[in-house]
Amino acid sequence: MSTAERDTIAEPVVEAPAESTTTNRKQPFPQGFLDTISTGWAERDETLPSPRTQAPFAAERRAAVSAAFPGKRLVIPAGSLKQRSNDTDYVFRAHSAFAHLTGWASDSEPDSVLVFDPTADGHDVTLYFRERADRTTTEFYADATVGEFWIGPRPSLAGVAADLAIATDHLHRFAPADGELVLEEDDDLTRFVSELRLVKDDFEIAEMRRAVDITAQGFDDVIRSLPDAVAHARGERVVEGVFHRRAREDGNGEGYDTIAASGPHACYLHWTRNDGSVVPGDLILVDAGVEADSYYTADITRTLPVSGTFTEVQRRVYETVREAADAAFAAARVGVRFREVHEAAMRVIAARVAEWGLLPVTAEQALDADAGGQHRRYMVHGTSHHLGIDVHDCAQARREMYYDGILAPGMVFTIEPGLYFQIDDLTVPAEYRGIGVRIEDDILMTEDGPVNLSAGIPRTADEVEAWIARVQG
Ligand code: GLY
Ligand code: MN
Ligand code: MN
Hints:
By secondary structure, the chain is α+β, with helices and mostly antiparallel strands. It is about 35% helix and about 15% strand.
């Protein structure tokens, strides 16, 4: 439903016909209720907050957008609640560009719209949203979706204006205009705001560090829970649930669905069913990231030996993946192309699987861009993606700005090589089958080289074994 459509919906029906199937649970409000519900409430605390830390950063981002689209009216909708089923919705998640340009994330209001109205020398920017309703309205007491009586306090125009340091107005006063550019409808605008996130500012970098730090604690929790996971028929769900608890308690939630993939499941790159058992002697691949309240997310993978120690073949695969990750890290320098990071990792992967006799060609032939690729059977995904408000950030950036783009200070991206030998892959010796390993770290590019934001989470095989012993000890 578009913002405009939603906003013209009539007041909620509080006394529906008895035969209605959508209101068959609702009791009519008796007159005594209607006569008294709007009175007897304490005055609201109208103290205005100081601008949040992110406010000046968001203002700079808006200034960049304004400068790029002179004379154009720009509309950046937050998006609406999405129905899960019947009258239950998914948790609201504002559009990433909206959050980036307003600084309003987990506490934002569905259906809000950020509007840039052109002026002689730039734009007037206004944030329109559905302000809380007066307590005399039916919305207050009868609207289970937005009424404060049902969902708790909602913000005022003045409160949000002070908090975000932005002009605000009521959603009712927002009207579409001819010729305006709307995010997701206009390719240039959509691309511009995506590319604007390629280089992170200081606020964003601090939030990424926060997300990584909470994620590190979530991984400690996971290790602590491994005995419980082994004891449970659906041990992968135990791992998912333990991480979820940390993500919700200390952050906004997960930035993406957790992958808790034990044994052969680790070879399925998008294993999010997480309904398998966790078996001693196997590895468990955990790909999980906490999203902070600001929406910035970590994206970390660790592959853990369930029993605390790697077997010889598991360690061989694991340390090869680490070698690939280290090669990618070494290749990451300001001024090189993003894809060179991936290529460095793939050279290691190709060389090792060739050495192990897994390829029908040499490593060099496999690395041929046109005729090769045989090694990619064992690592089909890319080594890196930009990371930020979205786990796969800057998704609408042009290829020449992304995969073929040049690394610059302030970029944050993953390094996440892996090796995956599926349980039924007859091209590998039996000892490799069912082993899947990925090591994923979050990297900040600086003038002085790459900084591994997740360096505090143990990486090498020896460190991982010591980590498990320490946390479980
Ligand atoms: N967790 C998604 C990814 O690693 O890209
Ligand atoms: Mn990733
Ligand atoms: Mn990941």
